Amino acid sequence: MSTAPAPPWRGAALRLLLRYWVRVSCVAWCVLSLVVLAMTGSSALLTEYGPDADGVMPSYDAWVRAYCLVIGVHLTWHSLPLHVSNSMTRRAFSRQALVFAVAIAGFTAALFTAGLGLEVLVYTVADQPHDWGFASLPSYLLESWLVHLVWLVGGAFAAACVYRFASRGLLVVPFVTLLIFPGDILLGRDSVALGTLPAYADQLALGWAVLGLLGITAVGTLLTWCLVRDVPIRPPAR
Question: Is residue 177 within 8 Å of 97, Cβ to Cβ?
Answer without folding.
Answer: no
